Prior knowledge:
Layout: E1 2-6, E2 15-24, H1 29-37, E3 45-51, E4 56-61, H2 68-76, E5 81-91, E6 103-111, H3 116-126, E7 132-138, E8 143-149, H4 155-163, E9 168-176, E10 195-202, H5 207-218, E11 219-220, E12 223-229, E13 234-239, H6 249-255, E14 259-267, E15 276-283, H7 288-299, E16 304-310, E17 315-320, H8 327-336, E18 340-343, H9 346-356, H10 359-389, E19 399-401, E20 404-405, H11 406-422, H12 424-435, H13 441-466, H14 476-500, H15 502-508, E21 514-518, H16 521-527, E22 542-546, E23 549-557, E24 566-569, E25 578-583, E26 586-589, H17 591-594, E27 600-602, E28 607-608, E29 613-614, E30 619-625, H18 631-644, H19 648-681, H20 697-711, H21 715-734, E31 737-739, H22 742-748, E32 753-757, H23 758-762, E33 768-774, H24 782-795, H25 802-814, E34 825-833, E35 837-844, E36 853-858, H26 860-865, E37 899-906, E38 909-917, H27 924-933, E39 937-941, H28 946-956, E40 963-964, H29 969-981, E41 986-990, H30 996-1001, E42 1004-1008, H31 1013-1018, E43 1021-1023, H32 1031-1064, H33 1069-1072, H34 1078-1097, H35 1110-1119, H36 1138-1141, H37 1149-1168
Parallel strand pairs: 7-12, 32-39, 32-41, 39-40, 41-42, 42-43
Antiparallel strand pairs: 1-3, 2-4, 2-5, 3-4, 6-8, 6-9, 7-8, 10-13, 10-14, 12-13, 15-17, 15-18, 16-17, 19-20, 21-23, 22-23, 24-30, 25-28, 25-30, 26-27, 26-29, 31-43, 33-38, 34-35, 35-36, 36-37, 37-38
Helix pairs in contact: 3-5, 3-19, 4-5, 4-6, 10-11, 10-14, 11-12, 11-13, 11-14, 12-13, 13-14, 13-20, 14-34, 18-21, 19-20, 19-21, 20-32, 20-34, 21-32, 21-34, 22-32, 24-25, 27-35, 32-34
Organism: Penicillium thymicola
InterPro entries: ATPase_P-typ_cyto_dom_N, ATPase_P-typ_P_site, ATPase_P-typ_TM_dom_sf, ATPase_P-typ_transduc_dom_A_sf, ATPase_P-type_domA, HAD-like_sf, HAD_sf, Heavy-metal-associated_CS
Transmembrane segments: 368-390, 402-422, 443-463, 475-492, 656-677, 697-719, 1050-1073, 1079-1099
Amino acid sequence: MLSANPHVGATSRSAIATTSIKIDGMTCGACTSAVEGAFQGIHSVRDVSVSLIMGRAAVQHDPSVLSPTKIAEMIEDCGFDAAVLSSEEQRNPDPASSPTTRFSVTNLAVEGMTCGACTSAVESGLNGVSGVNSVDVSLLSERAVVEHDAGIITPEQIAELIEDRGFGARVLDTALAGSKGPSVPAGSEEKSGLLVTTVAIGGMTCGACTSSVQSALGSVDGVIQFNISLLAERAVVVHDPAILPASKIPDLVEDAGFDASIVSSEAQASISKKTQQVNLSLHGLRDGVSATALEDNLLQQPGVHSTSIKMATSRMVVSFDPSTIGIRSVVEVIEAAGYNALIVDSDDTNAQLQSLSKTKEIQEWKRSFIIAASFAVPVFLISMILPMYFPGIDFGSFALFPGLYLGDLVCLALTIPVQFGIGKRFYVTSLKSLKHRSPTMDVLVMLGTSTAFFYSCFTMIMALCSMDPKRPSTVFDTCTMLITFITLGRWLENRAKGQTSAALSRLMCLTPSMTTIYEDPIAAEKLAERWSSKPTSGAIGQSTVAEDMTVNQKCIPTELIQVGDVVILHPGDKVSADGVVIRGESYVDESMISGEALPIHKKKGSQIIAGTVNGTNSIDFKVIRTGKDTQLSQIVKLVQDAQTSRAPIQRMADIVAGYFVPTIIGLGLITFFGWMFLSHVLPHPPTIFEMAGSGGRVMVCLKLCISVIVFACPCALGLSTPTAVMVGTGVGAEHGILVKGGAVLEAATRVTHVVFDKTGTLTTGRMSVDHTRIEPQWTMNDWRRQLWWLIVGLAETGSEHPIGRAVFSTAITESGHPGEDGLPGSMGDVENCVGQGVSAVVEPTSSGQRIRHHVLLGNANFLRSKDVPVPADADPDSAEPVEDPEADIPKPGTTAAGITRIHVAIDNRYAGTISLRDTVKETAVAAVAALHRMGISTSMVTGDTLSTAISIATTVGIPTASICASVSPSEKRSIVSALQAEGERVAMVGDGINDSPALATASVGIALASGTDVAVEAADIVLMRPDDLLSVPASLSLSRSVFKRIKLNLIWACMYNVIGLPFAMGLFLPFTGFMLPPMAAGGAMALSSVSVVVSSLLLKLWRRPSWMTVERLEKEFRSGAISPAGVGHRGNARKGSWWTSINILSDSPRSLRRRVENVFSSLWSLVTGKGPIPASQGDEGYVPLQTVEPPV
């Protein structure tokens, strides 16, 4: 156990030291209390944490007042041996505050969990342990995620605590809380030196098993963080190799009663520092001298950071920079030295595939079932069938001695291998769980079968001792049949569990094992320009480039591909890495990645994704991402994480499961003693108590007790949520919807309002010049017109903003330089003004003259701020409203609708206006209509102009009253927060960096995969088909279906026990005379969990609702069958709500535009506190990328 005594004293200095002390002689909680009591009242001691299991104490103190040696002496004065292990001093800027603790997150694989009681056992074993901040255990994924203070408890200690609970535990990885990846390569000279070790765990069956593994890891020094997955049977542990070597982690897991083996061990910083690690198996290495020479040879290669060879296992770990040297180059260096090297990282994938498919468990439980059945059937025949139906051949009635019968002796001999052979695992896990007071379902099995077995042995001994001529009542058939039914149930359950992860398994198997590449990728890339668009066939092993040129090919394992390789794809080949097509055209099937049914046309310059399938033509592509960096690997990682996380509703189920086993044991005892009392007190007890062959009242009561114990099973309750989440996330992945966990699924079911970003979400985000207005002095001739475009284009050179790119692209064509790289000229003195425009000095060089021009591009307000007047007819958005009722708001289809204008000034004189237009996505109207049909209101926020926003909203069907234009990223977040404050459950849909604050704030953030990595990271749901906005309502529909299935599973699991337990307890005996036999109860228990898993598997049949099609929804929208719903549609309008105040639909056309501007001015004040928006500021439309406010 671990105990803590925070704030023992208050230090007055800013220097704080953490000293670790090894203590020998502690045996119980009183010992830890004695150690803690020694520091009570000492002001220089801030905190004391004592671990009984590990024999460690961590003391935070002021080293200037109390030295580490003095601390050890104080502990020795308590009667214990103490030795200082380490003492690290840190500076604390605020002496009055408690020391800053940097938590780590460790992932662990936990084996042996079968139900919610198992997960509760794992959690209870870690909760309350000093240094553990939070614990999250997944039953189905067989993972545990633990946030803890690595200075107090290491990942290895956590694994050990879990193992003490009776489960297998292996550390998978550890990272600092909030970090994105591992830390430092092994052997590198980084400061942290932490390793991320992935451990495979065998034997976990339920949540209580993961709890045991967590308990085993929770108190181990050197463990920084861990996570456990029940279904994946993995533990990821981040640990300090100086304190806990990776080789010790499996031992900690095995001590808890589970099988454990290391899958991988890599440095924590290898990902975040763009460093990769490869694990190699070496063959031919003779001795340490050879190993040292090989390491020295590798370290001389550019890009190789560190190497480590273990002679005992002939394994090598190489850390390298993939941008400098690739995996294949590393292997080639080793092979050139005369050794063979095989990459063993793929073993992790193979092991995880086997874990996901439950191959090992299925084989083991099938074998156990067959063996148990082979013994149980003869016992059942001898005990039941022959005496009842074939008394003439009932050899079991032959008495060997008075009181000892041949049948009982044979049944005993046949039962022992089943009870203590097949049932050994139940005894091992039960005893360990009872040791930690966290009983699991295995305890029920052990109690039920052991009671029947030992009672039968007792009756045999009593009959033999008393020489009773009457044959004793034995129930050996109950023991064997119960274990047979339970092993059958576990076999069927694991087969069903294996199907729940089929989608993830298919994703992991998409990459091919071998790949064909060009031997010289640089030459192949250069020569690709000389190839025609259609591939030229050549001899095998060569590709003909020209009549006198060939480029050799070679076939290599996929894991040896490195960035920069040029891969050859033949028709029907699977894509092995992410890349860019450099030669040829073909159609590629991306359905397995994005869910898109139709093949996608790929040509030169097109992106290609690993795991997709090439069509009918051959193409070549250049590799840009390999291995774990590919989009497919990221999807697999996302789905794995989603299936590891737990929905909030599952936590309650696991809590109930934690109390389930003790409750059932109590009910079993009540049943036994209750019926014993009633059978002797009632004048006319139920006839079964007095029937011949029933075995007497004690035997009947015992059978009723056993039936209660074995009938009730917490497995169904514990599997209700994780199986549905695993199947649901897998189905979503197959449809291009990546959901980040069960909590997201649950939150998505409550969404009442969806906020859309405009650019890139509702629209394509690809601006194009609609028309231009150029002042007469620049249109006198073609040369002056081309010069105008050249000047404008130079000012937008290098812009990444959609508007800037559109202007630059048009300028290249209109300036008369379409065939050249860029525009002739130079640019300097660039000044970006936030929300306004850009100022630059350009110097065209297309003519003989070299004249510099000062250029301004931006909105009208920007030019006016530079003392450049803009004609009123060039800026209709800022014109004063007139009394003409038809001149208020631009209608869709007119020149003003959806137009974004930027004005141009050259040499401080107005020179023209460029009008650009964005196009609405084809599925935008249908997506908004689908949400309205589902009862979900919609709104739109954008940084674009008000007129453009109203035009797009009117086109797609978003209520005009629910528009916010000209808002910054922080204001988008404030709008989402305001909606949530009013009781709305908000989903935010976006794709860019400027959407990430709102995505992170929303109840559910939905990002388009075409967007930025920041947006995808901040989102909860990622849509792999960004052009199909129907994926937004489809994701919410999927979430509802999954959550309905979870509730159905939970109701079934509860009703199963609520209805079945009264029968098992014999409550209906007085009325029906019916008693549930223990064998039938065991069969029912086995089927309960199977039924829940099968119910979850039915989610595989999920499809989008039949009405969710573009054609049908657009038709209903046009006909008015689907009416837009505003915010707060579920109830009366909220008084004082700024959204309610945007009620412009009922206003007269004359004042419509003015009221919209006034309302948005009020909104600006509300969300920013900056005061009203200036009248012209609401029409800002051009914001260069460099001026976009960064996410906060």
